[in-house]
Design a protein that fits this description.
heterodimer, A: Rossmann fold, 2 domains, 5-stranded parallel β-sheet, B: mainly beta, Alpha-Beta Plaits, 5-stranded antiparallel β-sheet, 2 helices, globular
Chain lengths: ~300, ~140
């Protein structure tokens, strides 16, 4: 089959600010008028190719397609794909792109979605590639911030936890750097500080103000958004380093006592210990809303890519 | 020291001292089956010392490989004992199968038959990033 030029979403940078604003607008319309969208993808198939398990992301994509009236097929780990027989990713994608109208792929290797997009005849959505990119998580974060704050500019955003390997953090910084008057408080242990290239090529290049600290409480009272992340075991080559750093930050009610009344606490989930369950009862905890929003922004994205706009 | 002049081929001049051996290896000149002269630390009015490469055959050469190592060289194309063209080259925007990505998490570490591609992201600082995982190109990760 001939490879035609299709739109893909590999990196959040693939989308212009205007395109992101449009996706957010459509997602909000879907939330308010679900029935209107329930047959938009009748007869369409989404392939969810998950070469490493991620139940939440996969179900979110599948829910999005089912809510649009489409159907889904796929696998949830590489042992159930032909990769286990030694097939290249390029060949897997060439075959599957003939079975589906759009592909959502999670792969442990960084850059795998670029290979997939180069070999697919249908749009490819990157559902996470190692520690590299996770653009639909970023879209989810942007939708959540925009719904909670009614704006995407003039915000002080605290990012806490693994800022070194945390791809959601890197993508969020990259996306938010396009908006006016954003300031970041980068909270991490020394070993998990934001990589230098993010500082030089994104923050400093765009004249974005930022402060690095290892204290969760120091700037708490300034924050409009607090974005917590999990220290991910799979990103470490050394078990001892992971054990030492995994519980470095634990957000609880006491640490929130000086926070703004309208702070929004976000987390890409799943969490382990970094947010105490007592915080769930706090009205400022928005991470479950964030997860729900993930379905709606993915619906907007699937529609947009299938329409080729 | 006498080095024969060449009838047809290339004289790669103004190579920064020490870089000729890298170009020699990267172009796989030991296997092209003709005379090759590699001169290091020759005198240079401009820079004090320089390297030179003389290749006694008009082979297809990958200019990107040379430009990546040393964009300041001059490539003299010799035909019938005469220099017919002096070519200046520029640092390449894209490197294809010149270097490999050293990130063990990169798809290029496992996917067969995949071109190793790097894109120039900062011309002044000569920074290249992997086309797939965006990792920085590390020093001397050449594909020989």
């Amino acid at each position: 089959m001939e490879k035609q030029k299709t739109r893909n979403l590999i990196d959040i940078k693939d989308l212009s600010k205007e395109e992101i604003d449009k996706l957010i607008k459509v997602a909000n319309d879907i939330i308010n008028h679900k029935e209107k969208y329930s047959h938009k993808c009748d007869g369409k198939i989404l392939a969810t190719l998950f070469f490493e398990p991620s139940t939440r992301t996969r179900l979110s994509f599948e829910s999005a397609m089912l809510r649009l009236g489409g159907k889904v097929l796929g696998f949830s780990e590489s042992s159930s794909s032909s990769t286990s027989k030694g097939e290249t990713l390029a060949d897997t994608i060439r075959v599957v792109s003939g079975y589906a109208d759009i592909i959502a792929m999670r792969h442990p290797k960084e850059g795998a979605p670029t290979v997939a997009a180069n070999n697919s005849i249908v749009p490819v959505i990157n559902a996470g590639d190692g520690g590299h990119n996770h653009p639909t998580q970023t879209l989810t974060d942007l939708l959540t911030i925009s719904r909670e704050k009614k704006r995407l500019d003039n915000l002080i955003i605290g990012l806490c936890g693994d800022l070194k390997f945390g791809r959601t953090i890197h993508s969020l910084i990259s996306a938010m750097s396009r908006y006016e008057n954003i300031k970041f408080i980068l909270i991490s242990p020394n070993e998990l500080k934001i990589p230098d290239y993010i500082k030089t090529e994104v923050l400093e290049k765009n004249n974005i103000e930022y402060i690095e600290t290892d204290s969760l409480e120091e700037y708490m009272s300034d924050l409009d958004i607090l974005y917590m992340t999990r220290v991910q075991k799979e990103r470490f080559f050394n078990e001892a380093d992971y054990m030492r750093l995994k519980d470095y930050y634990i957000l609880d009610n006491n640490k929130l006592k000086n926070a703004k009344k309208d702070l929004s606490i976000l987390h890409p989930l799943p969490r382990v210990n970094e947010i105490s369950t007592e915080v769930d009862e706090d009205k400022r905890a928005k991470y479950f809303e964030q997860a729900y929003n993930g379905v709606y922004i993915r619906m907007a994205l699937i529609l947009s890519l299938l329409e080729g706009k | 020291m006498n080095i024969d002049t060449i009838k047809n081929g290339y004289v790669i001049d103004h190579i920064t001292a020490g870089n000729a051996i890298k170009i020699y290896r990267l172009l796989d000149l030991e296997n092209i089956g003709c005379q090759v002269a590699l001169i290091t630390n020759a005198k240079s009015k401009k820079t004090g010392t320089k390297d030179l490469l003389k290749i006694g055959k008009l082979i297809d050469i990958n200019l990107d490989k040379i430009a990546f190592i040393d964009p300041n060289v001059t490539i003299n194309i010799v035909k019938n004992d005469k220099i017919i063209e002096k070519k200046k080259i520029e640092i390449p925007e894209k490197l294809i199968n010149v270097c490999y990505c050293n990130n063990p998490r990169c798809i290029t570490s496992t996917e067969r038959n995949l071109n190793q591609i790097f894109n120039l992201t900062n011309k002044d600082k000569k920074i290249y990033r992997c086309n797939y995982c965006e990792a920085l190109l590390e020093k001397d990760k050449f594909i020989y």
